[in-house]
Amino acid sequence: MEVKIEARSLTKNFGTFRAVDALSFDVKAGEVFGLLGPNGAGKTTTLRMLSGLLTPSGGEAFIAGHSMEKQQQQARSSLGFLTGDMDLYRRLNPVELLTYFGQLYEVPKATLSARVDKLVDAFGITDFKDRFCEKLSTGQKQRVSIARTLVHDPAVVILDEPTTGLDIMASEFILQFIKKMAQEEGKTVIFSTHHLDEVERLCDRIAIIHQGKLEHYGTISEVKQRTQKENLADAFFQLVN
Amino acid sequence: MRTKIISAIFRKEIKEVLRDKRMLYLIILLPFFLYPVLFTLIGKVGQSQQEKLSTQSIEVLVSPELKGTAVEEALAQSSELKLNFTDFEEATIDTMSNGIGIKLDVPFDQTMQNNGTASIQILADQSKDLLQFRSRQIRTVLQGVNQNLLKARIDGAGLNPEFAKPLNITQVDLASDQEQAGKALASFLPMIILLFIFVGCIYIAIDITAGEKERKTLQTIFTAPIKVSEIIAGKFAAVFTVGIVSAFMNILSLMVAIMIQVKFMGGEVGSFSISIDPMGWFWLCLIIFLITVFLAALTLAVVLLANSYKEAQSYVSPLMMLIIIPAVMSQMPGMELNTSTALIPMLNISLAIGAILKGGFSTAMIAMVAGMALLYAVIALFFASQTFGNENVVTGEKIDFKSLFSFRKS
Ligand SMILES: Nc1ncnc2c1ncn2[C@@H]1O[C@H](COP(=O)(O)OP(=O)(O)OP(=O)(O)O)[C@@H](O)[C@H]1O
Ligand SMILES: [Mg+2]
Q: Cys-Cys crosslink for B326: which of A101, A185, B234, B346, Cβ 3.0 to 4.6 Å?
């Protein structure tokens, strides 16, 4: 299987504090990969480096085979990225917002509106597609945000805690969508979360990081085996305590 | 740089601005109503003040010797002056709240018969508008009496009227009244224009930089395959557009206000004559264009360093001083555009705009200021691109000022 996301000893220092310490892992085409870790472990920092928002202090990130440093344009074109500290433009409605990002990603004019319509439909945005984003509820905003990461049909999608703050139905909707995206469209997804059940349902392989270091990298069954625990939560506790 | 991307960013910013009612109010409605309302109010207040003064009567204490003289006859013509012939002291006038005294030092009739000089003092508290107004009126009346008495004396002596007037001195101001009004306006206008360009730029610049950071939207476009320079260009174009529209709205509003003013105050259109020839228009537009480029780039670069509205506003206040102080200085008497003032940032811009509005400017000097404005614009644009390219600026982390000035690789 082709490697779509690669972290090659990624390191990030904030002053003298090392938030991420030489992380290496890769994610293959069509895979849903889970990034786990307690608060402050360095998940968001790692994902930001992968997406090119932060320049690594050391190491390199590759998206769809392109170096985020040396082939930034190609790497970014292949990537859709969402973190919790991103919001939507207040005074644009979802359709305008999606269209705007389509233009930024140079989606051809001829296909852009069809693409936007499709996303509006797929994410159940139709009912509020004419409402300004500032008026939307948290769950509605999250749907638009994820649709935004997909407007240019990227091969790789990085989602930082996509279900935080959502009710069970909204979370379920998004999880199903992630699963479908990987299975039907062959997209590569990496997502971080604090909900271990989500990981168990969606992912084959995971990475658990703690204080910036990789504690585990492999399948869920491997981590259970290694820690001699029945469920992922117990294994997780053992690794990060 | 791809123009399609830049134009997409520009259009999005403008779309959001047009949907912001506060912004529209500040940029379009406020200037549009500000001047007409202000001018009309000032005009009306001034007018009614004048009317009020001219109807209010006052008591005038007059030395009894003046009773039955030409002076009484002349003063009695004005019904607002209530004459009271009585002996009085200076202190009496002081204690009256609304009184003026006319004091004679020698017997009047006798002095006149001897062709002598009678001294007349007008005692009034000049700090009161009404008393100042009335004492001027009395003075004018008395001067009329003086002229008549003089004429009678000259006639009586069989002399020509020219006898008492060896020299006839008049002062001719080469500037017409209209030109003077225009000049007053011309020294005041540059400050207003600059200020409003600046306010417009600040408002939108904060909104689309620090405001976007505060609302957590700025990061989203930084994951798109677009260059920092394209984002700056798009945002800069939006800030610049608002600045120019702001300048235009203010000039337009001012013109409308002047027309209204002229109509209501009874003057014909053209009482304010600002005549600008085609070259003047060219330079005026060029300088306003360049200075808007400068102010747009400067505000953009500075407010980008902030992570919130509040912080941005605290950065902008000192900048505001940078614009206001030179603009106010440019209105001081004797300030004009010359080789030294042309080198002082912002003062030169105010003076140059003023000089163009006044007419008769030196092209070399104006061209020099335009060159300076271009230089400021380039520096500010460079600074803006440096700030924007800084990773910490974008992600809203603390900014290391040293790194802003180190050249980036890409
Ligand atoms: N810009 C920054 N400057 C200094 N320290 C930072 C910065 N960004 C993150 N950190 C620190 O780096 C560490 C990792 O932060 P990060 O946001 O990556 O954690 P996380 O795993 O995403 O946590 P959470 O689950 O709470 O989201 C934290 O200790 C954080 O305080
Ligand atoms: Mg995080």
A: B346
